[in-house]
Automatic annotation (TrEMBL):
Record has Transferase as a keyword: yes
All copies of domain Deacetylase sirtuin-type, residue ranges: 17-266
PROSITE patterns listed in its UniProt record: SIRTUIN
Annotated keywords: Metal-binding, NAD, Transferase, Zinc
Keyword Zinc: yes
GO cellular component: nucleus
Class of this enzyme: transferase
Protein name (record): protein acetyllysine N-acetyltransferase
Native source species: Chaetomidium leptoderma
GO terms, molecular function: histone deacetylase activity, NAD-dependent; metal ion binding; NAD+ binding; transcription corepressor activity
Binding site for Zn(2+): C132, C135, C162, C165
Enzyme Commission designation: 2.3.1.286
UniProt GO BP: negative regulation of transcription by RNA polymerase II
Entry superkingdom: Eukaryota
Length: 391
């Protein structure tokens, strides 16, 4: 990975409001008629969530090039509310219009906003995702899972271990000079070179290689007469502007709000979604002497473990477990008595989410099977909604 930073940041250009309306209409038409629409995002889409970009006037690299320190406090990426742009992309995905997303951002906001794991390549990693290089198992954390950089920036070990094979876990962040993750890059290129007929760049200066080769591949296809179209929305000029079918100088939220209005689609509000698996397994004994173990864990839609719980309390026997694995022993004939477990869940709480009480009925035919609950927290009204899902 290579990049450049300007001591004097490139000027930010802003469209007149009616020009922006016209371009939004044009883009909405392109999206509506596309067969394989992909989006490429950079730090510019997260600035309205309070997360600084890199090359804007107050961007991280601009400040570094000028020898300045940041004065205003930036929002932690764990507490940031996904922007209108993030949520518009989720809706476009859910409506089947957005086929694939490629992002240079490591803030994890796309995944948290609701983009599915098989619909995204996070080219520069995700600061809440770590991986076991021995067996390939991934883990998502509701805390910053990045190696301590006081060692070497190329030592990515986080100090935690894989629960499957005990191998050391590594963060997924890509530092200067490090190669991009092969699988993510391969998927991104596959969509850009062979499938996309429309690529929208949102909030990227397109100066970082090789990530910028993704939109470039779409632009090149157009140059070769391939018909794929590139649309770029970024306040500053980019090196690929000459290849673009449409060039928009605006904040990405301002464009996407207009585009969604043109498409007649609503931008959904952000809801924090967690999935909780409760598994009861028999460990021995029979009848009154039956012994079971209940394991409570966080999971992603694809089964990847997600650590978002601080503690779990079994209200029935007042036991509290304060670290993973959240496991409880049960005695007695669980199945026949139709036992109901009362669980009190305590979260990491980055969005101020309160504890949640969950009543879980243990069924005989579900022993050994993970029962998954969808837990939805609305940060705007402070309420949880719990749904038992089919699994
Ligand atoms: Zn492993």
């Amino acid at each position: 990975m290579a990049w450049t930073a300007h001591k004097v940041p490139l000027p930010e250009l802003v469209e007149a409001s009616n020009d922006l309306d016209e371009k939004a209409r044009e883009l909405a038409n392109l999206i509506r008629t596309s067969k394989h629409f992909i989006v490429f995002t950079g730090a510019g889409i997260s600035t309205s969530a309070g997360i600084p970009d890199f090359r804007g006037p107050e961007g991280a690299w601009t400040l570094q090039a000028q020898g300045r320190q940041r004065t205003a406090a930036a929002v932690s990426t764990l507490q940031a509310i996904p922007t209108a742009t993030h949520m518009a992309l989720v809706e476009l995905q859910n409506q089947g219009l957005l086929k694939y997303l490629v992002s240079q951002n490591c803030d994890g906001l796309h995944r948290r906003s609701g983009i599915l794991p098989d619909k995204i390549s996070e080219l520069h990693g995700n600061n809440t995702r770590e991986i076991c290089k021995d067996c390939g198992k991934e883990y998502i954390r509701d805390f910053r899972a990045v190696a301590d950089d006081t060692k070497s920036i190329h030592d990515h070990r986080t100090g935690r271990k894989c629960t499957i094979c005990s191998g050391p876990l590594h963060d997924t962040i890509i530092n200067f000079t490090e190669p991009l993750p092969a699988r993510e890059l391969e998927l991104a290129l596959e969509h850009a070179q062979n499938k996309a007929d429309l690529c929208l760049v949102l909030g990227s200066s397109l100066t970082v290689t090789p990530a910028n080769e993704i939109p470039e591949a779409v632009g090149n296809s157009r140059r070769r007469g391939g018909g794929a179209k590139l649309v770029i929305c970024n306040l500053q000029a980019t090196p690929l502007d000459g290849m673009a079918e449409l060039r928009v100088h605006a904040k990405t939220d301002e464009l996407m709000v207009r585009v969604m209005r043109e498409l007649g689609m609503e931008i959904p509000g952000f809801v924090l979604r967690r999935r909780l698996a409760v598994t009861t397994v028999e460990v021995g004994g029979q009848g009154r002497g039956q012994r079971c173990k209940v394991v409570v864990s966080g999971v992603d839609v694809d089964g990847t473990p997600v650590s978002f719980l601080r503690s779990v309390k079994m209200v029935n026997n007042r036991r509290v477990v304060k670290a993973e694995p959240f496991a409880f022993d049960l005695r007695g004939d669980v199945a026949e008595e139709g036992l109901e477990l009362q669980l009190e869940l305590e979260f990491m709480g980055h969005y101020g989410e309160p504890n949640l009480e969950l009543v879980h009925g243990v069924q005989d035919n579900e022993l050994g099977v993970a029962v998954v609950y969808l837990l939805e927290y609305n940060p705007y009204n402070g309420e949880w909604k719990t749904t038992r899902t089919k699994q």
